[in-house]
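ARCHIVE CARD
CATEGORY: sequence design from structure
SOURCE FIELD: tokenized fold
FIELD CONTENT:
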């Protein structure tokens, strides 16, 4: 069976689950939110990581259905944690370009929120920089509709696309997630740090929070504290974990 066929079947059979990776305050280490990352629970191959199927899903258009499943699962998980009496934190969900440009994202999202009675500000949509910067007018209109629902918006993998500063200034986004390639370079020296600091200043001027992705060492964390980066995410804090482990983060066991 080709991967496309298998994926089509998997969407119908709902063979997906979400792992969660915490995002914490850079200084206090307190949990701020969690990123939902999809995994394919394949009956024979076990847990398949997204790198092996997201691009196929994107190319075939299956990502629209898969993305809807992911939003549904994120909202359903939040509702379950609420039933357990846990203090909730926002969950961020990755939105692919095709999903972002599809006409039914708004109805899919409002449907999932409503079915589980989840306040919109508990959901954040991560949209990659390259997707955001394609057609500024169209993107602004789409973002306005999403913001009207009340969800938060972040720019994912920032620094790997090619946004102009004027585009960035026009976009109504809440969070800038700086790509992990910039985090990796932080310990190299002054220039990398100054560069990162400039991104932080720019984001703050534009009223955006800054998240450093891929934080793996204490040294990187300490530099990011000095640079006033708001939040960090990465293996130093935790790798993405199943829902039952993520639940412990909500219980303040991070
Ligand atoms: O979880 P992992 O680090 O293996 O994720 C690899 C890539 O897959 C990342 O770029 C991530 O953004 C993407 N990804 C993970 N989950 C989803 C999802 O639900 N939807 C989309 N569109 N991309 C996802
Ligand atoms: O593109 P996006 O930012 O959504 O990618 C999330 C991906 O990054 C996931 O596949 C996740 O497993 C991975 N990731 C998360 N933290 C780290 C880290 O500290 N180092 C590395 N190398 N990858 C990470
Ligand atoms: Mn992401
Ligand atoms: Na990213």
């Amino acid at each position: 069976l080709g991967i496309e066929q298998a994926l089509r079947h998997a969407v119908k059979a709902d063979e997906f689950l979400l792992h969660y990776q915490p995002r914490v305050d850079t200084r206090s280490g307190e949990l701020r939110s969690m990123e939902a990352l999809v995994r394919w629970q394949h009956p024979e191959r076990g847990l398949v990581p997204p790198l092996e199927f997201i691009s196929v899903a994107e190319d075939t258009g299956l990502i629209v259905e898969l993305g809807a499943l992911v939003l549904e699962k994120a909202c359903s998980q939040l509702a379950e944690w609420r039933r357990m009496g846990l203090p909730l934190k926002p969950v961020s969900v990755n939105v692919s370009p095709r999903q972002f440009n599809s006409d039914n994202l708004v109805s899919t999202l409002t449907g999932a929120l409503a079915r589980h009675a989840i306040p919109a500000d508990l959901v954040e949509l991560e949209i990659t920089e390259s997707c955001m910067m394609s057609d500024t007018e169209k993107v602004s209109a789409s973002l306005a509709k999403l913001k009207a629902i009340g969800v938060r918006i972040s720019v994912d993998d920032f620094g790997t696309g090619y946004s102009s500063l004027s585009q960035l200034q026009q976009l109504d986004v809440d969070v800038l997630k700086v790509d992990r390639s910039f985090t990796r370079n932080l310990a190299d020296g002054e220039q990398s740090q100054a560069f990162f600091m400039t991104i932080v200043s720019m984001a703050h001027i534009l009223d955006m929070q800054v998240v450093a992705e891929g934080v793996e060492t204490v040294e990187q964390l300490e530099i990011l504290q000095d640079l006033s980066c708001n939040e960090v995410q990465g293996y130093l804090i935790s790798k993405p974990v199943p829902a039952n482990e993520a639940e412990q983060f909500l219980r303040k066991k991070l």
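CARD ANNOTATION: The pocket of guanosine-5'-monophosphate (ligand 2) is lined by residues 21, 37, 94, 156-157, 180, 213-216, 234-235, 240 (CB under 6 Å). Residues 19 and 244 are 9 Å apart (CA to CA).
SHELF: design records, drawer C
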